[in-house]
Amino acid sequence: MKLLEVQSSVRLERSVSRSLSHEFVQAWQMNHSHAQHKMRDVGTNPPAHPTELWTQANYTPPEARTLEMVGVLSHSEQLIAELLWADCLLLGVPMYNLSVPSNFKAYLDNVVRVDRTFAFDCETFTLQGLATGKKALVITPSAGDYAPGTPMAKFDFCEPYLRAILEFIGIADVTVITVPNQFMPDEIRHQQIETARTKLMALAATW
């Protein structure tokens, strides 16, 4: 088993997604003693946003790319290689302003690439995910409660987007652990963290 952990919170010691992810990885490794684990921190070291040259290189056949094109895509290729290496993805993605952090969006823009993680057939207008055979676990803290049926549910552009983009590249087995109400009083906030922790510890034994 090979686990790729991607953390996107800009916080370090006070990050709920980071601390819960750390606990999950420790518990998961106890049940998978020979598992391999890699961590990519796009919260403290975000990838560069695509540029005009990057886009031109992306849509140029590999054999026709200039050295400059190869260079501008090199970090993206490294990120994709990590993604394709993994059997399991652990994504720490706090909700920022109703959606994913911008640094995580930059990561996605680097790994969601035609003929690398998805394919498009111009004749049939069909899409095919290429990052298949994987599963993903997403830990997403948020300031309020965006669960279905709540008044804030319509403002959640984080979980639906994550599920959609992961399925787009071929990962449909997605588990999302939300940690809501993190701007509420401590008693409520800690209760939500403990609820998420309980779910994650149970999942570590079977995931």
Automatic annotation (TrEMBL):
Boundaries of every Flavodoxin-like fold domain copy: 1-200
One GO MF term: electron transfer activity
Cofactor needs: FMN
The family this protein is said to belong to: Belongs to the azoreductase type 1 family.
Gene giving rise to this polypeptide: azoR
Self-association state and partner proteins as the record states: Homodimer.
Membrane-crossing residue ranges in chain numbering: none
Organism of provenance: Chroococcidiopsis thermalis (strain PCC 7203)
Gene3D superfamilies named in the record: 3.40.50.360
Keyword Flavoprotein: yes
Record's cofactor remark: Binds 1 FMN per subunit.
Function: Quinone reductase that provides resistance to thiol-specific stress caused by electrophilic quinones.
Catalytic reaction list: 2 a quinone + NADH + H(+) = 2 a 1,4-benzosemiquinone + NAD(+); N,N-dimethyl-1,4-phenylenediamine + anthranilate + 2 NAD(+) = 2-(4-dimethylaminophenyl)diazenylbenzoate + 2 NADH + 2 H(+)
Major enzyme class: oxidoreductase
EC number: 1.6.5.-, 1.7.1.17
Protein's UniProt name: FMN dependent NADH:quinone oxidoreductase
Residues annotated as binding FMN: S9, S15, V16, S17, M95, Y96, N97, L98
UniProt cross-references to InterPro entries, sorted A to Z: Flavodoxin_fold (IPR003680), Flavoprotein-like_sf (IPR029039), FMN-dep_NADH:Q_OxRdtase_AzoR1 (IPR050104), NADH:quinone_OxRdtase_FMN_depd (IPR023048)
Pfam families associated with the record: Flavodoxin_2 (PF02525)
Signal sequence region: none
Keyword NAD: yes
